[in-house]
Amino acid sequence: MINISILINSLLLSVSSLFHHVQPSDVVISAEKPHGCQYRGTVISDQGSFITGQTANDSHAPAIIKDFKDQAVKIGANYIQLIPTSLASNDHLKDQAMVTNNGKAYYCPKDDTESS
């Protein structure tokens, strides 16, 4: 029985080492592509809605940043390269738009993110 628990603990430690423990405050957001980093996935944040009538504007920026950082933490990323924003508008609702913000999430060793 002891051997099985040692094996399970070793396995759990190995799996947890694949993901780096990242905090939202550790996440760097930049337009620059990082070097020497491991790609982890894409992060997406939608702001504004045709359905609710909520429009996208600069007041959404803190929510977008928080959303990006929260998503990055979930996948063990500490660097987000911003991808140019896409804007969708509706001909029937001329003053309303929905903005989709995208980023590529990476895990970078500490030295790479600090120099960016």
Tell me what you see in this structure.
It is a single chain. The protein is an alpha+beta fold and 116 residues long. The chain has one domain: Translation Initiation Factor IF3 (2-Layer Sandwich). It is built from three helices and four strands, in the order H-E-E-H-E-E-H. The protein has a four-stranded mixed sheet, covered by helices on one side. Strand 3 and strand 4 form a beta hairpin. The longest helix is centred in the N-terminal third of the chain and has 17 residues. The termini are far apart.
Summarize the structure.
The chain has 116 residues and is an alpha+beta fold. It has helices spanning 2-18, 61-74, 110-114; strands at residues 28-30, 38-47, 79-90, 93-107.
Number of strands: 4
CATH class category: Alpha Beta
The Rg value, from CA coordinates, equals: 19 Å
In what range is the share of β-strand residues?
25-35%
Overall structural class, as computed from helix and strand content, comes to: alpha+beta
Tell me about the biggest sheet? 4 strands, mixed
CATH topology: Translation Initiation Factor IF3
Helix content: 25-40%
Judging from the principal axes of the Cα atoms, what is the shape? globular
> In sequence order, what are the helices and strands, one letter per element?
HEEHEEH
> Which sequence of strands runs across the widest sheet?
1-3-4-2
What is the count of DSSP helices, taking H or I runs of 4+ residues?
Answer: 3
